[in-house]
Specification:
The chain has 198 residues and is α/β, with parallel strands linked by helices. The chain has a single domain, classed as Maf protein, CATH 3.90.950. It has six helices and seven strands. Strands 1, 2, 3, 4, 5, 6 and 7 form a seven-stranded mixed beta sheet that branches. Helix 1 (13-21) links the parallel strand 1 and strand 2 (28-29). The protein is elongated and about 55 Å long. The two termini are 20 Å apart.
């Protein structure tokens, strides 16, 4: 009997690469394309989990009999949710908030198995930025890797030189907590169909 397929409900190339890092290759990628605007009064951990669930549920409706994996990452300073900047001014505001302080990265993971059962995990990582100089601000913004990244930075890229330490899941900060995701998939009976040979 063949294993049920795995569908990644995300357009993020980082999540796809992270899964491949642990030998999991989704059979298909089908982004949910949701409005990710926080609801009034919604806190960062709740937002991350809600969006992960909504992504999984939206895509599962199109893939009966499959495992569907949804995930979301929210960067927050206190209760303040930082955006995914699309312009330099927004990226600069994010970096100004992060400079010289700690912040939290909230990850939500949702899995719908072939029977339609929903399982979830919520993860939080703590990240500390150094105090950025004017030159560091300018260099990082000029590089452009902030575009579309939660909080305006990519820890797996040039921002690694600006981060003093990380407490908790590093892969969660990149975009998908791998330990929790692997445990969730294994717990719901997902079997890799020769993914390692791909």
């Amino acid at each position: 009997m063949s294993a049920a397929p795995l569908v990644l409900a995300s357009a993020s190339p980082r999540r796809l690469e992270l899964l491949r890092q642990i030998g999991i290759v989704p059979d298909s990628v089908d982004p949910a394309d949701l409005d990710e605007t926080p609801r009034r009064g919604e806190l960062p951990p709740s937002l991350a989990l809600r969006l992960a669930i909504e992504k999984a549920q939206t895509v599962a409706a199109r893939h009966a009999g499959a495992f569907v994996l949804g995930a979301d990452t929210v960067v927050a300073c206190g209760r303040r949710i930082l955006p995914k900047p699309e312009d330099e001014a927004s990226a600069r505001r994010c970096l100004s908030l992060l400079s010289g302080r700690r912040h939290r990265v909230h990850g939500g993971v949702a899995l719908i198995d072939p029977s339609g059962r929903l399982s979830t995990r919520r993860v939080v990582s703590l990240v500390a930025f150094k105090r950025l100089s004017a030159e560091e601000f300018a260099d990082y913004l000029a590089g452009g890797e902030w575009r579309g990244k939660a909080g305006g930075y990519a820890i797996q890229g040039r921002a690694a030189a600006l981060i003093r330490w990380v407490s908790g899941s590093y892969s969660n900060v990149v975009g998908l907590p791998l330990f929790e995701t692997a445990q969730l998939l294994a717990g719901r009976g997902y079997r890799r169909a020769c993914a390692a040979s791909s």
